[in-house]
Hints:
Blueprint lengths: L1 H9 L3 H18 L2 H17 L3 H18 L2 H17 L3 H18 L2 H17 L3 H14 L4 H17 L3 H17 L3 H17 L3 H13 L5 H17 L3 H134 L7 H20 L2 H4 L2 H13 L3 H14 L3 H8 L5 H11 L4 H8 L3 H14 L8 H6 L2
Amino acid sequence: MLIKAINERAENNFGESLELLLKVKNRSQQKNWNKQLFLAINNIGVNYYMMLDYGEAIDNYLEAYKIALKNADSNEEMIVLNNIAILYSKEKQFAKAEEYFLRAYKIALGKKESLKIGLYAINLATVANEQNQVRKAKEYLTIAIPLLKNNQELLLMAEIAEANNFYLAKQHQKAKEIALKLFSTAQKSSNIEAKSSILILLAQIFQEEKDISRATDYINLLLKDDNMSIENKKDAYKLMAQLSFDAQKYNQAILYKDSVMFTMDSINKIKNGRLFENSKIKFEAQNFQQKLSESTQQLKTERKLFYGFIIGLILLLMLVFWAIRNHFIKLNQRKIIAERNQQIIELELLQEKNEKLLLEQTLQEHNVSSGLNEERLRGEIELKNKQLTSKALSVAARNNLIEDIIAHFSNFNEVRGNPILENKVRELKNHLKKDSEWDHFFNHFDEVNQGFLKRLKEAHSYLNANDLRFISYLYMNLTIKEISSLFNITPEACRKRKERISKKMNLSAEEDLYFYLSNI
C-alpha cells in the first residue's frame, strides 16, 4: 500500500494516495509497526507539501519526527529533518531551514555517511547563499563536492550552488565559467530544478555584464520549457522585466510585469484549488476514520457477545458436570464412612505415638545442637582467628574480660570478707566503659560514614540504641560470628536479631539487610 500510495502521488492523484496512506497509518497503529507508521505519516506530509498545504505538511512532519525520536532511528530522523528544512526553505524562512538542515547534517556526521553528509552540506550551502552568507556557503561546498564525485546528480547540484556562490561573491568570471560548463550537463539531466537554476544564474551573470541579449536568450530557453514549474516561470518573467527595463524597452517590461502578476495570480488559484481539494480529502479522511472507528467498535461489541456466550456455555457445562460428580461422590461416601472412621481412629493413635517419638527426637537434637553451639563458641573465643579491626571490637573484648574476672572473684567467700579485694573488684568495675563510650563510637562512626546513622534514624526513627549498634556492626561488614561475640550472644540469636530488625524496618523476606543499608 505504501508503494502504491507513492506511485499515485507521482501521478498527482493525491486523494487516492492519501487514502492508502491513512489505511497504512491505521493498520500500523493497530499492529504497533513503528517503521511503517513513520513512513505513512512522513509521506502524508510529503503529499500535503506537494499540494501546497504547508500547514498540514509541517504538522505531519513533526508527528513523524516524534516517532523517529521514539524509535531512536537516526535514519528516520535525518529524513524528516530534511523534509522540514525544505518546507521552511520554500516559505523563505531560511534561518529555520538552516536549523533543521544542520541537525540532519550533524547526525550524518555522527554516522559517517559520506553521501548524506554531502547532500546536507549542499542544502546548507544553498540556504547560506539565499541569505548572502558567501563564506559559510563556500565552507559547506568545500566539504560536499569531494564526497559526491560518484553521484553525478548530487554533484551537479553542488556545482550549481558553487557557481551561484561565486556569483554572490562578485566573482562573475569564475561563476560564468562554471555555469557554462554545467549548462550542457543540466540540459541532459532530468532534474527540472537544476535546469531552471543554471538558466537563471546564466541570465543574471550576463545581466551583470550588460549583455542583455545573451541574458534574454537563456530566459527564453527557460520559458519555452513546458516542464518548468510555475514558480520558476514567475522568477523568469520577473528577470525578463528587469532585462527589458535595462534595454529601455519599457512597454515590454510592463508586459513582463503583468506576466509576473498573472503568474502569481495563477499560483494563488492553484493554491486555493489545492486547498479546496485538501479540505475535501481531509473530510473524506475523517469520514474514513469515523467509519473505521464504528467498524472497530461494532467488532468489539460482537466479540464481547461471543465471548459472553462461550463463557456462559462453559459455566453451564461445568455446573452440570459438578452436579453429576457430586451425586456420585455422595453415593461413594455413604459406603466408606464406616471404614474411614475406623481408619481415622487408628491413624490418630499412630499419629500421637509418632508425635511423641518426634518430640523426643527433637529434644535430643536440641540438646546435641546446644552442646555443639557451646563448643563452637568456646572454639571461636579461644582461636580468635583474626585480629580485631576497630575500636568497638577492642572495647567489647576488654569489657567482657573484666566482667568475667569480676564474676569469677565474686564467687569466692575470701573476697567478700576482704576489704582490700572488694576494693580491687570495685576498681575493676569502674574501668568498665559506660554508654558514653558507645556514644563516642557512634559519633566517630557517623563522621566516617558521612551521616549514615543520621540518615538511618530519619528513615527509621523507631530503632533503639541496640538496634543502631547492631546495624553499625553489620554496615562495617563484620561477620555474624564477630557481631555475636560483641553482643555476647550466639550466631543463631544474632541471625534472629538480624531478622527481627529486618521485619522492624519493614523489609520483605527477599530483601537483604546489608544490601539495603549499603544504599541508604
